[in-house]
Write a structure and sequence with these properties.
300 residues, alpha+beta, four-stranded antiparallel sheet, 12 strands, 32% helix, 24% strand
Length: 300
């Protein structure tokens, strides 16, 4: 690490974009406040910009009127991670943190991202795509054994996600997912250990294992104390840790991500690694996973 801290003159006024209109708004506000506090503790000039609408014109005017020189984007979910806010910032010619428009769009859409992962030789769970317009007309066939994971492809924080153990519960789970998206995914359930690898300055950090007391790492397990333990670093053979880091960096790179991200994957009982997704704007509070991994490397 460079021991010299950046100066206020180098960045000018930094706008911390937080909140947003997505289902992850409250989490974004927590991340944004943590980022704002950290920037101010470094002596930098920073202010909070609470994004409350998905309207491009209103948001553009809000950011323009703040008179900032650059933006630290801490908008989780839609509008923040799908390329929309990045497009607005580019139209204002403002530098911003994180991935660009195209990488953000692709990473946010689990269907598009998994197509790219497969093209780059990365292992992903088998999946079937369900379209809302034809869901009630065509019979649903998974093509792989139970249990199944049902999720909307463009939402984070496990919102709208279910695990189905019986075929008769499938339609209800798909209905939940389609309440958030025009498509739903039926995915193969990978039994095993959940791992995550943070990417910082385009380099992988240590592997973290997520051990939840719940059936899966759902919204409650992610954001309420007492449901989940984090093992930093994960207790893995060195060769397996290295492989997980290589997969994470390749996933980050093949989507065209920039600066930082967090890559989630599963390790099955035969020590095979399955890539789940890349989060272009992961949680950034002191208890979030990317900061935990950075702290292990000595970065507060």
């Amino acid at each position: 690490m460079n021991s010299q801290l950046p100066t206020e003159k180098q960045f000018g006024k930094i706008g911390v974009l937080m909140g947003g209109p997505s289902t992850e708004r409250e989490i974004s506000l927590k991340s944004g406040k943590a980022v704002l506090q950290s920037l101010k503790s470094l002596g930098l000039e920073a202010l909070a910009i609470d994004i409350t609408t998905g309207d491009h014109g209103q948001t553009r005017e809000l950011i323009r009127s703040a008179g900032i020189d650059c933006a630290f984007v801490v908008l989780h979910g839609r509008f923040g991670e799908d390329g929309q806010i990045q497009s607005i910032l580019e139209s204002l010619k403002l530098p911003y943190t994180g991935s660009g428009v195209k990488a953000s769009q692709t990473a946010m859409d689990k269907i598009s991202a998994k197509n790219i992962f497969r093209q780059n030789g990365l292992e992903v769970p088998a999946q079937v795509i369900i379209e809302k317009r034809s869901f009630r007309k065509d019979p649903v066939k998974a093509g792989f054994g139970l249990p199944w994971v049902i999720k909307p492809p463009t939402h984070g924080s496990s919102i709208g996600m279910s695990i189905v153990d019986k075929p008769e519960n499938l339609v209800a789970a798909i209905d939940i997912a389609l309440g958030f998206d025009d498509r739903a995914l039926i995915e193969e359930y990978i039994q095993g250990r959940e791992l995550t690898v943070g990417i910082l300055e385009n380099q992988p950090l240590c592997v973290i294992e997520i051990v939840t007391k719940k059936r899966f790492f759902d919204f409650e397990a992610k954001y309420q104390n007492g449901f989940t333990d984090y093992i930093v670093p994960a207790q893995l053979q060195e060769s397996l840790s290295r492989k997980a880091q290589e997969i994470a960096l390749k996933a980050h790179s093949c989507l065209g991500c920039f600066g930082f991200s967090r890559v989630d994957m599963m390790l099955d009982r035969k020590s095979r690694l399955y890539l789940l997704e890349v989060n272009t704007i992961p949680g950034l509070t002191s208890t979030s996973l990317l900061p935990k991994a950075a702290r292990f490397k000595g970065i507060e």
